[in-house]
Amino acid sequence: MPRILLLIRHAENDVMHRRLAGRLPGVHLNRRGQQQALAVARMLLGAPVQALYSSPLERALETAEPLARALGLQIEVRPGLNEVDFGRWQGRSYKQLQRTRLWKLLQAEPAQVHFPGGESLVEAQQRVVNELESLAMEGAVACVTHADVIRLALLHYLNMSLNDLHRLVIAPASLSTIVLGERPQVITINRTAEFEWPVMPAQAVSPGNPSARP
């Protein structure tokens, strides 16, 4: 039985354009995000998915709901798919964060970053990979989670350095697909239901910052 991971980023919300939501509760999809979630469900209708998992945050669960209906599956919440724990950065505006020394380190050497009061990106990557390896034992599974969680997983399976974090773009409501085996294969990265020309960032991207992403 093939072990396949379908990694889906949650759809759009209003907070993501202004500040780092992190694990804040009460962040819901906006109207555009609801439409994106429906598009994901249409894109995967009929896919041979055995199980559907989600981060515990509302924006992920709301993205998973149309897919659950389309596939006839229940959503199982998995804390291991939760957003990176940004600690005291959570809820702060990107303008505030860009003035910190840690932000500059984050652009240059993400592997060295430990978020104040939160986790390091090394710790987050280990958490995510362990969770995905466990979930994939069921065969083909869909996981609705967050951009940085998906980027950390892709870096691992592509055998890339954590310092390559900013090379990967994961848009809202996008799909990345990994086939696990003796040699993992990354089949798709950042596939969206409808192509949109990306907005080129004026500055380096960073975890949680969708203002510098499509």
Question: What characteristics describe this protein?
Answer:
214 residues; alpha/beta; single chain; 15% strand; Rossmann fold; 6 strands
Count of DSSP strands: 6
Strand content: 15-25%
CATH topology name, in short, is Rossmann fold
CATH class: Alpha Beta
- What is the CATH homology-level superfamily? Phosphoglycerate mutase-like
| Widest β-sheet, arrangement of strands | 3-2-4-1-5-6
Query: On the 0-100 scale, what is the average pLDDT?
Result: 92
* Series of secondary-structure elements, N-terminal to C-terminal: EHEHEHHHEHEE
How many domains, in number, for the residues?
1
State the major sheet: 6 strands, mixed
Counting helices, strands and paired strands, the structural category is: alpha/beta
**Uncertain spans:** 210-214
CA-CA gap between termini: 35 Å
Rough outline: globular
Helix percent band? 25-40%
What is Rg?
A: 16 Å
Number of helices: 6
Named CATH architecture: 3-Layer(aba) Sandwich
